[in-house]
Specification:
By secondary structure, the protein is of the alpha/beta class. It is built from 13 helices and 16 strands. Helix 11 packs across helix 12. One of its GO terms (molecular function) is ATP binding.
Length: 432
């Protein structure tokens, strides 16, 4: 388990005895620190096509088209034959988050979902496996006879993007493939709101089972909202789920407005804190907000410049560490904000996955706290039942840095961790 942020000591926890056993790629609940994620497994396919190709298959240009599996497969096969596909990316908001967590933490995670039982070379399932970290334990996936989901992005010569969505068997996950022993010992469980819209599909019951097991064993639940339209269509169900099960909620500013009615991210975060314990709001060029609770004895004032918005002096206690509200005797709301890292990249190559990267950083900090609490239970770091290892301000820095790493590359998943040695400009950033 790597620790989040930058540490002055190379070996933060000295090792006194060599590890004699061979490393295990499968999660061992009694020994490992890991997080568990449930996702609709989907592969993103990027292809260059002509307007005539869209007309041939009666695909609405510039729109998101939900297409029957047989037709989608025919489209995909022709794209392969024409050499029109430029990239395959393993997708899914939780799949991205889990992968990025394992890259950042250099440690294990568990993915729950479906996978094609028979995988052909070059198939979407093959590309999904190839683009997922080897530290993601996929031994608990449910095998299906069909294909995983496919999202085909077709780019015409004028630059317009048209989407073809083929769900495949991604919603076929059943509650039988929700392993209680794995969930019970997890540092956190992470889900998205997408399965909530899969009415009548097995994955909705599987997600419900996951949430119930996590609540039963006191495992923190982290949820990502998905899209603005999803929130608008299923707002009441999402609100009920958050109230009952969720400890950390992540969203962008549009999803936050759809959920709360507040366009201002800070006001939206304040409203969401009435439902859950910690809130991440990514607000594009405005940066990101991380808000939550701490207990009165653990309150720490910031040395950063004080900020005011719709809440006066809102970042006053951002050097505090998060605590779940139910564990606070005298809960105090804490708000932190950070501007885009280094002002944001000069050229954004990809916005898909930036929020997933920020969420992976938060999961890493929660898991680091879990690891440290079990390794050194008498440490002063655990005088209060903290949810995370670092302060709100430090987690903001970390999440911001990971988001930047996603924005400057073409893919939504990290291929490696953050650089060990930063340049002088970044050095100054971390010292602030």
């Amino acid at each position: 388990m790597k620790f989040p942020g930058r540490r002055k000591l190379k070996h933060y926890f000295p090792v006194s005895q060599p590890k004699l056993q061979l490393p295990s790629f499968e999660v061992r609940p009694e020994l490992d620190t890991y997080v568990v994620g449930l996702d609709q497994t989907i592969v993103d396919v990027i292809a260059n096509v002509s307007d005539e190709f869209l007309e041939k298959y009666k695909i609405g240009k510039g729109l998101s088209n939900l297409v029957e599996h047989g037709k989608a497969d025919q489209i995909y096969q022709e794209l392969v034959q024409n050499g029109a596909i430029s990239d395959h990316f393993a997708g899914g908001t939780i799949g991205n988050t889990i992968h990025n967590y394992s890259v950042l933490a250099d440690d294990k995670s568990v993915l729950l979902g479906v996978m094609s039982a028979s995988i052909a070379l070059g198939s979407p399932a093959y590309h999904y496996l190839c683009h997922t970290s080897s530290k993601v334990d996929m031994n608990h996936l449910q095998g299906v006879h069909g294909d995983v989901g496919r999202g085909i992005t077709m780019i015409t010569p004028d630059g317009e993007r048209t989407f073809v969505i083929d769900p495949g068997e991604m919603d076929a996950l059943t509650p039988a493939y929700i392993p209680e022993d794995i969930i019970a010992k997890a540092a956190a469980v992470v889900v998205s709101a997408y399965p909530l819209r899969a009415s009548g599909q097995p994955i909705q019951q599987a997600m419900q089972r996951l949430l119930e097991v996590a609540k039963k064993h006191g495992v923190p639940v982290v949820m990502s909202l998905g899209t603005k339209h999803l929130v608008e269509e299923h707002r009441e169900l999402i609100l009920a789920t958050v109230r009952e099960y969720v400890d950390v909620l992540a969203m962008n500013e549009l999803e936050a407005e759809a959920l709360t009615g507040f366009a201002d991210p800070l006001q939206a975060a304040e409203a969401v804190l009435e439902l859950t314990d910690m809130v991440l709001v990514t607000a594009g060029p405005e940066g990101l907000y991380l808000c939550g609770y701490t207990d009165e004895p653990g309150k720490r004032e910031t040395t950063n410049p004080i900020k005011s918005g719709t809440i006066a002096d809102y970042n006053q206690f951002e050097f505090s560490r998060p605590v779940q509200k139910q564990h606070c005797k005298n809960p105090v709301k804490v708000y932190s904000h950070i501007d885009p890292y280094l002002g944001g990249p000069e050229r954004i190559k990809n916005t898909n996955g930036a929020g997933d990267g920020a969420l992976a950083a938060i999961l890493h900090d929660i898991a680091a706290n879990y690891y440290h609490r079990h390794a050194l239970p008498l440490s002063s770091k655990h005088e209060l039942p903290y949810l995370a290892y670092s302060s709100f301000a430090q987690i903001c820095k970390y999440a911001n840095r990971v988001s930047y790493a996603i924005l400057v590359q073409n893919a939504p998943r990290l291929s490696r961790g953050l650089p060990e040695k930063e340049d002088s400009l970044e050095e100054a950033y971390w010292e602030r």
